[in-house]
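PT: before anyone asks, these are the final sequences, not the draft ones from last week. 228 residues across everything. Please model them as a single complex and drop the result in this thread when it's through.
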Amino acid sequence: MKNRIKDLRKARKMTQEELAIKVGVSRQSIIAIESGKYNPSLELAYNISKVFNCIIEEVFIFEERGEE
Amino acid sequence: MEVQIAGMIGLYGGAVLGILGWWFGRRMAKKQRGLDELHEHIWQKARAISWFFTLASLYVLFSLIMFGIELNAAMVLGVIMMVHLASWAITGVIMSINMNMSEPLKPSRVKLGISIVAVSLILFTVLSIITDNWLFLLASIPPNIIGIISALTPARSAED
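LR: through. Structure below.
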C-alpha cells in the first residue's frame, strides 16, 4: 500500500511529530507508515486522512498486488 | 529436600525486576504516545516469532535426552525460558529499529542474523550445561554480535 502522507504533510508544512500528536500515535508510527513499512488500521488511516481533509483513497493508494 | 535460597532470589527477584522494568517502560512510552497500534503489532509479532525459537530449543533438548544425555528439570526450564525471552526481546528490538530506519532492513539478512543468534545461543547453552562449564556461554558472544550486526545492516537503496 502506497501513501501520499509525506507530500500532504510537506504541503501543509507539518512535521511528523505534529501529525503524530494530531492522530494520537508515536512519531515512529508515522515514520513507518510514510515509508510503507507498516499499513495502518482502518481507524488510523481514517484519522490521518481527516487531518488532511481528504478521504482515505486520496491518501492511501491500494496496489492490486497487495502485500509482498 | 532443601530450599535453594540463591535460586529463589534469582527467580523471584528477576521476575520482580522484570515486571518493574516493563511497568516503567510502558509508563515512559505512554507519555510519548508510544503504546499505539504499531507498538502492539511489533510486540505481538515478536512474541509469535519467539515461539518458533522455543520450539527449536525443545527439539534440541529432546534430542539430547534421546542421545542419552541426562538433563535435570532446572536446566531444561532455564534454557527454554532464556531462549523464549531472549528471542522475544531481540526480535522486538530488531523490528522496532527497522520501523525507525529510513533505509529498510533486508528480510533475508534479518532472518540469517536471527538464526545465527538463535543457533549459537542454543548450541553454547547446551554445551555449557553438558560440560558443566559456563565459559562456553562467553564463546557465544562473537557469533551473537555477528548475527545482530548482520540483521541490523540496512539494505542499500533500491536505486543501487
